[in-house]
Amino acid sequence: MPRTDWNPILRGEFDKPYWPILQQYVADERAQSAVYPPHDQVFAALHLTPFAEVKVLILGQDPYHGPGQAHGLCFSVPRGIPQPPSLQNIFAELHSDLGIEPPSHGNLEAWARQGVLLLNAFLTVRARQAASHRSAGWETFTDEVIRAVSARPERVVFILWGAFARRKKSLVDLTRHVVIESAHPSPLSAHNGFFGSRPFSRANAALVAAGRQPVDWRADD
Predict the structure, then answer these.
(1) Which residues, including other chains, have CB under 8 Å from residue 83's CB and lie 6 or more apart?
(2) Of the chain's two ends, which shows fewer C-beta atoms within 10 Å, N or C?
(3) How would you write the pLDDT of the chain (221 residues) with one tens digit per residue?
(4) 15 part of the active site
(5) Of the residues 40, 62, 216, 221, which is catalytic?
């Protein structure tokens, strides 16, 4: 994990029994098959969004499992990689909500640099095998990330899309923070409550109400 202000907050996890087992599991997986994202991008979300600057937490599930897609930020892909369907739907809702035109790329680093923590619950995946690392132990670690953010005194907006993410609501202190939840933006469920949910304007309204700067949701740097 890169040296960031997350280290003292999460250092205790590295001393727990599950951590070396998890790291060995991922190393063994990389030795025998392609694993995404690349090793140096596994903790990109924590590297790009310091703990002290978190305003919004968007929770994904697995990294994308296609070649070149995953780069450590949930729902995001590097420039030059076609936008996956879920991301296309996110941009469609962003346009409906705030009138922001969809960008030509799918890189969400501009959000991350403004305090939007783009966290996947599982930080690695075997190529072309969705959910393949769900039993590895990542969820123990990322649940602790969510708890740490929830312990912050300043308001944070947690955006939870889909049944899996919505189960994490129990980790959030609802007396301080705001949870925005809806169906997942995937093509299978986006029409069941994601479209029309206006998460971006609602998140900004919650931030402004708490005296925090809103997010500029344009994805272009």
Answers:
(1) 77, 91, 105, 106
(2) C
(3) 556 899 999 999 999 999 999 999 999 999 999 999 999 999 999 999 999 999 999 999 999 999 999 999 999 999 999 999 999 999 999 999 999 999 999 999 999 999 999 999 999 999 999 999 999 999 999 999 999 999 999 999 999 999 999 999 999 999 999 999 999 999 999 999 999 999 999 999 999 999 999 999 999 85
(4) no
(5) 62
Nearest alpha carbon to residue 220 among 68, 107, 130, 118: 107
Global confidence as pTM: 0.97
Nearest CA-CA partner of 121 in 155, 168, 87, 159: 168
Secondary structure (DSSP) of the chain = --SSTTHHHHHHHHTSTHHHHHHHHHHHHHHHS-EES-GGGTTHHHHHS-GGG--EEEEESSPP-STTT-SSSTT---TTSPPPHHHHHHHHHHHHHH-PPPPSS---HHHHTTTEEEEESS--EETTBTTTTTTSSHHHHHHHHHHHHHT-SS--EEEEEHHHHHGGGGGS-TTT-EEEEE--SSTTTGGGTTTT--HHHHHHHHHHHTTPPPP------
